Amino acid sequence: MIENMSGLAAYYPLWERFLDKLPEIITATWETPDMVLLSTLFSLISGFLLAILMIVTNPIGLKPNRSVYQAVDFVVNLLRSFPFIILLIALIPFTRFVVGTSIGSAAAIVPLTIAAAPFVARLIETCFLEVDRGVIEAARSFGASNTQIIFRVLIPEALPSIVLNVAVIAITLLGYSAMAGTVGGGGLGDLAVKYGYNRFQVDIMVYSVIILCLLVLLIQGVCNFLYKILR
Amino acid sequence: MIQVTNLGKLYGSHLVLQDINMHVHEGEIFGIVGHSGAGKSTLLRCLNGLEPYQMGSVKVMGVEVASLEGTALRMLQSKMGMIFQNFNLMSRKNVFDNVAFPLSLWGVAKREERVMELLELVGLADRAKQRVQSLSGGQKQRVGIARALALNPRVLLCDEATSALDPKTTSSILDLLEDINRRLNLTIIMVTHQMEVVKRLCHSLLMLDGGKTVAMGKTENLFLSPTKEMQAMVEDEYTLIPGGTNIRLMFPREISQQSVITQMARTLAIDFSIVGGKLERYLDDVFGFLIINVQDKDLDAVLHYLKTQNLFWEILAYSENAGEHA
């Protein structure tokens, strides 16, 4: 007993602690996809709209509009330059206003969405820019309207690469969601920090990381599969 | 059908098209030729309103293109099909859906029937459900042609339609275009840098260089008596033989199949060298030219002989770098 100075962990068989913490691990495992899925969804919707706005008003776009493009472009760059942890704290009053509380995984969705939306906008804009301009010109040559070009050429043609980028976004948000733990966001990242980092319970940290790893593989796998179907 | 007068177009302050005049008749195959960057594709895009122009006028079926916008412009565009060098098909869709795309944009009914009819026309009916990615270049261009014809256009605009294809495929695509032109009495405007394409297919042509007209007229006349600028652009390169006199003989269609040259050698009992030459198919005829090198002592006799024959000819000047602009 005297030679074991490394803290509580040494007294406790690991298995017992695992059983003891299992309910918490399960709760955290449910909270994480919850946060990540919802924030991915919301950031996709808002980022998608921003991307459409940018691609249309782009100087080489369907309806070039310099001032609108530059304004959106600037806001996107500005939001992307915030370190997430700063944004997270800076947004607390806003989160409280929207969700009613600034604690818990529902509250974490607000900063996650706001941090990811400009990122999503940029990624999807790139997907749109990669659509062959010749195909767009062909559509124009047989008299397609701008709306038809957006919905029937641009979006369908960009869809496979958008799906691949959804994986990038969801996995980034998975990483961000760990940070959201610092403002009481919950989830696996929170668990890893709370027990693994603050209380030196390395085993709990390992469990969280393994589950996070599996989630990353799952997200990437699903998106790759969808890409293959859509391509 | 299409009347272009004094057309001028600016990119910023740079004049890319200058004072272009052309007239395309209904049912004609009209070529726009020139090197890359000559403004051919820009000119083509002015015809269907994909590019705006600042000076002069473009009238298609009696309507000034620049005066149209919105739905009226889209209506005009639907009456003008277009095909492209890189085919510009939607890679995720199959052959059928690509051809059906213009029809669905315009809400045309009975699409199935129309698409199959078009695929029949271009010889791809058995490939309807195949993805375009799996097709060869020539097949992709056939899909492009079927798509361009979907809305029953009056004019077909071809932007370097055969430039990405190998010679054999090019030939089959040209056959198809020719067939369509005859069968549907479709006006075709072809932009190309390939002289073979022009000679093979185009009734009339406009030659552009640096946004300006170099030559315009009936293809046959232009190739039989080319202007100096046109020669500089068109001619195949032959290294002329120093010494003696190099003469270019041009054969109009009536005598291209007679053995003029060997007859001359026999009649005059002289020898000469052949520098180079070419016989080409033009529409349904064959015509061509031959460059010969004659020794100075025989020159008078040869020129005298040529004058009695129904031949176009000219003496080529020899210079050190003649190969580059002969």
Structural summary, described in words:
The complex is a heterodimer of chains A (231) and B (326). Helices cover 79% and strands 0% of the residues of chain A. The relative contact order of chain A is 0.14. With 231 residues, chain A is mainly α. Chain B is of the alpha/beta class and 326 residues long. Chain B has 2 domains: 2-229, Rossmann fold (3-Layer(aba) Sandwich), CATH 3.40.50.300; 235-325, Alpha-Beta Plaits. In chain B, 35% of the residues lie in helices and 29% in strands. Chain B has 12 helices and 14 strands. Chain B is elongated and about 75 Å long. The two termini of chain B are 37 Å apart. The interface between A and B is medium-sized, with 21 and 27 residues.
Strand content of chain A: under 5%
Which residues of chain A sit in consecutive blocks of at least 5 with pLDDT less than 50?
Answer: none
Silhouette of chain A: elongated
Helix and strand succession of chain B?
A: EEEHEEHEHHHEHEHEEHHEHEEHEH
Calculate Rg of chain A over CA atoms.
22 Å
Name the shape of chain B in a single word: elongated
Give the domain tally of chain B.
2
**Tally of extended strands of chain A?**
0
Number of strands of chain B: 14
Largest sheet of chain B: 6 strands, mixed
SS strand fraction of chain B: 25-35%
Radius of gyration of chain B equals 23 Å
Q: Using CB atoms under 8 Å apart, which protein chain pair has the greatest interface?
A: A-B, 21 and 27 residues
Number of helices of chain A: 9
Name of the CATH first level of chain A: Mainly Alpha
Poorly predicted runs of chain B are 319-326
Helix-strand category of chain A: mainly alpha
Give the helices and strands of chain A as they follow along the chain.
Answer: HHHHHHHHH
Tally of helical runs of chain B: 12
- Oligomer classification: heterodimer
Largest sheet of chain A: none
